[in-house]
Specification:
single chain; alpha+beta; OB fold (Dihydrolipoamide Acetyltransferase, E2P); 6-stranded mixed beta sheet; 4-stranded antiparallel beta sheet; 8 helices; 18% helix
């Protein structure tokens, strides 16, 4: 009996996953415990093992693809088993549940789009556009449409722009009337063969109608290909009475990107309008040695604009989502202090003189923070919509920078750990974080977070609270500077720390009292070991 395997939830915050690689292929034998794939979550790339024996009959999410949790990932069953019926099952209704391939299944409600029919949704014509208003339609239902024809003028949040068709056919339906406003991706129009019945499409739920993907704008070539010498034919662009060349906005943009004089391009669109394909197919003519010289203005740009698109990883998208939610929902305020680090410097020097012992200033800060939190549970608290939780255990998260962003492994019961234990575990976490070997359990459960950029030479900074925690401590570099001691100016070493607090749980006086306790531990580090 075939078994449906859905995209697993490999962390508490995971909403979608990317298949980094498949370690089994369709047709391979699978034994319980075999690693099926490596899946990139919002926190790490993890191995996903099979809980079933059989043959891998189907892969639903290819390597490099991203899919939400509970989407069909794979099917394992008996070799040669018919799984046709299972491929139409709504897998989100019963994840990881065995379903007989011979039993009838309920298929998802998806509109069947006839061949040749093109669904066009409200386009996103600017980077900030969320909705658009149809200023005018230049085509009406029943009109023939050619690729490159202007369908409508659409008012965005920045300008009123012409929207051209990427398809040829007959305009069968207009979904948004003149003057109406609709969100991006709302059904705008349908183009297809004349006489096509579109009633089933219009009757389907909006979410069941998938828009036809429009072709992406081609990148300009990096080199100009060698052209055979041909006689010059003068183009005959259509020019308005005001002297403006008739060309679509997309054609103008491509021409500008490629340094092409738009007036040299011959248009093949409606009424001779220059469209995208005309610019892409345009070849600058070259003269022979005997050909008459042609005067043409050629613009040679002084530089070249260059961009690189990097797809957001699951980790980066989650960081953006969670920290954005924290910053704009939790009322942050900041308390900054400066500590005398001379005692800590001397303490560390003596401690590291013990054979096979090495601790860092970060270890000293983490231990001092853990002991201070034990004395101030209000700072060690967490905010939820219906309650506030005071934690009497201390789990300190330590922010670690990795290639894709930031992870926060957690030192469980940090107040009970010795300084060498803290140092050893932090180094282990940091190494495995950079090689994406941390487990979700090692990154869950923090009650407070420490972020240290002092090692990068940052003197002072603020951090965003890692919710649902109530506070986070930002640790700067140790700086040598003139200080006043016993009424005299001497050379001293200081360090600035900034405590970010959620005002819903931690009042200003509470945060200040926590920092006073922290100061006592750091400026009297012998208290950390007695």
């Amino acid at each position: 009996m075939a078994t449906i395997i859905n995209m697993p939830r490999l962390s508490d915050t995971m909403e979608e996953g990317t298949v980094a690689t498949w370690l089994k292929n369709v047709g391979d034998k699978v034994v319980e415990g075999d690693i099926l794939a490596e899946i990139e979550t919002d926190k790490a790339t993890m191995e996903f093992e099979s809980f079933h024996d059989g043959t891998l009959l189907h892969i639903g999410v290819d390597a490099g693809e991203t899919a939400p949790v509970d989407v069909l990932l794979a099917i394992i069953g008996d070799e040669g088993e018919d799984i046709t019926a299972l491929l139409n099952v709504d897998t989100t209704a019963a994840p990881q549940e065995e379903v007989s391939a011979n039993e009838p299944t309920e298929t998802q409600e998806v509109a069947s789009i006839p061949e040749g029919l093109e669904i066009i949704n409200m386009p996103r014509l600017s980077d900030t556009m969320e909705e658009g208003t149809v200023a005018s339609w230049l085509k009406q239902v029943g009109d023939a449409v050619e690729e490159g024809d202007i369908l409508a003028e659409i008012e965005t949040d920045k300008a009123t722009m012409e929207f051209e068709s990427f398809f040829s056919g007959t305009l069968l339906h207009i979904g948004i009337g003149v003057g109406e406003t609709a969100a991006v991706d709302t059904l705008l129009a349908i183009i297809g063969p004349e006489g096509t019945d579109i009633a089933p499409i219009l009757a389907a739920p909006p979410t069941a109608i998938k828009a036809t993907e429009t072709p992406a704008t081609s990148e300009p070539p990096s080199t100009v290909p060698t052209q055979e010498v041909t006689p010059i034919e003068e183009p005959t662009p259509v020019v308005t009475t005001t002297g403006r060349v008739m060309a679509s906005p997309l054609a103008k943009k491509i021409a500008a990107d490629r340094g092409i004089d738009i007036s040299l391009v011959t248009g093949t669109g409606e009424s001779g309008r220059i469209v995208k394909r005309d610019v892409e197919q345009f070849t600058p003519a070259v003269t022979t040695a005997t050909a008459a010289p042609v005067q043409a203005a050629v613009f040679v740009p002084a530089g070249q604009e260059k961009q690189e698109e990097i797809p957001n990883s699951q980790m980066r998208k989650t960081i953006a989502k969670r920290l954005g939610a924290s910053k704009f929902s939790a009322p942050h305020y900041y308390l900054s202090v400066e500590f005398d680090m001379d005692p800590a410097i001397e303490f560390r020097k003596q401690y590291n003189s013990i054979p096979d012992t090495k601790i860092s200033f970060n270890d000293i800060v983490v231990k001092a923070v853990a002991l201070s939190l034990k004395a101030h549970p209000q700072v060690n608290s967490q905010w939820f919509d219906d309650k506030m939780v005071l934690n009497h255990h201390v789990h300190v998260g330590v922010a670690v920078a990795v290639e894709d962003g930031l992870v926060v492994p957690v030192l469980k019961f940090a107040n009970e750990m010795a300084l060498p234990q803290i140092g050893s575990q932090v180094r282990d976490f940091a190494g495995r974080a950079r090689s994406k070997k941390l487990t979700p359990q090692e990154m869950d459960g923090s009650t407070f977070t420490v972020s240290n950029l002092g090692m990068f030479g940052i003197n002072e900074f603020t951090s965003i609270i890692n919710q649902p925690n109530s506070a986070i401590l930002s640790v700067g570099a140790i700086v040598q500077k003139p200080v006043v001691k016993a009424g005299e100016i001497v050379v001293g070493n200081t360090m600035k720390l900034t405590l970010a607090c959620d005002h819903r749980t931690v009042d200003g006086a509470t945060g200040a009292q926590f920092l006073q306790t922290l100061k006592e531990f750091i400026e009297n580090p012998i208290r950390l070991v007695v």
